[in-house]
Amino acid sequence: MAKHRRRMAGTKEEVVLRLLRGEDMETVSRESGFALHELKKWLDQYKCAGREALKSHPGIAANLELEQARQLIAKQALELELRKKVKALVLCHD
What we know:
The chain is an all-alpha fold.
């Protein structure tokens, strides 16, 4: 039954937001099916690092975003280098 209640309770973030709104931790624990120690841990994690800390694999999204940014920078650097070479070739032929 506890697993069913957990699925119905929604995400960890929803539970933490209830606590941040001032709802009683014991009531939230009972209604969500999550243990008090889990709620306390999630609340502390959320206060320290926000919603990223509540993810099953924290950091994966940030790492993906960082890798995408690196790829974009590399692409733009290559395009800039090519433009410089084209400009140099055009100036040499004028």
